[in-house]
Amino acid sequence: TDPIEYVQRIADFPYTTAVNYPEGSLEGWEFEARQGLGRLWDWFDGWTLGGNLTLIDSEVILPEEEAEQFEEPNIEAPMKKRDMTNAPEHLYNIFATYNFGRWNLPNTETGLYYTVRGDTLVAGAGQSNGKYLPNVYETEYGTLNFSFSHKFGEHCKLSFQIKNLLDPAIKTVYRSKYIGDDVTKTSYKRGMEYSIGLEGSL
């Protein structure tokens, strides 16, 4: 009830604002599996492989006034419902971790994690004074992260991470059946992120 949605508006320039919509629904299914390879082959002792998949189905109902505006003769882009913002069509990731126990370093672990985020609505369609702005979607992209950690005794942990190793282009597009093919709105790269942490507990 009354989900907060991000939609586009036009003044002297286009902008995005938050609006309460009448109603919406969000449901999904998640599947996950992981396996320690040492249970299958002694030579792979310390290795763990895994992954998960999330499938998402979302929908919001447009306010009646907004739906009527999209049907006006100068717009002619009827739409009574659409995807929920910030709800990707799917998410999945696969990972591999290695524990150095067989090297007498049971408190040391490293891992690689690859995550894919499906197409995601980031701003709903909008109109003003006869001008129409289609839905804006962020297209699917994948990220690869690396981590390393080592525990010193029971109370201290050193960690190192590199995020976004592949540094893919992240693109947003205008998408609507009324404009034909997707039209690129923005395209950029976030760059890689490095972090070092030292944790302690009493």
Polypeptide structure, described:
The protein has 202 residues and is mostly beta strands. The strands form four sheets. Strands 3, 4, 5, 6, 7, 12, 13 and 16 form an eight-stranded antiparallel β-sheet that branches. The chain has a four-stranded antiparallel β-sheet with strand order 8-11-14-15, with no helix packed on it. A hairpin with a 7-residue loop joins strand 14 and strand 15. The longest helix has 7 residues.
Task: Summarize the topology.
Blueprint: E1 4-10, E2 14-20, E3 23-36, E4 47-61, H1 64-70, E5 81-82, E6 90-100, E7 105-117, E8 120-123, E9 126-128, E10 131-133, E11 135-138, E12 141-152, E13 156-163, E14 170-175, E15 183-188, E16 193-200
Antiparallel strand pairs: 1-2, 3-4, 4-5, 4-6, 6-7, 7-12, 8-11, 9-10, 11-14, 12-13, 13-16, 14-15
Task: Please describe the structure with a list of short key phrases separated by commas or semicolons.
single chain, 1 helix, mainly beta, elongated, eight-stranded antiparallel beta sheet, 202 residues, four-stranded antiparallel beta sheet
Oligomer: single chain
Let me know the number of strands.
16
The total count of helices amounts to: 1
* Beta-strand content: over 45%
The unreliable regions are: none
Main sheet makeup: 8 strands, antiparallel
Q: Averaged pLDDT, please?
A: 93
Order of helices and strands: EEEEHEEEEEEEEEEEE
Helix content: under 10%
The 3D shape can be described as: elongated
Structural class: mainly beta
N-end to C-end Cα span: 45 Å
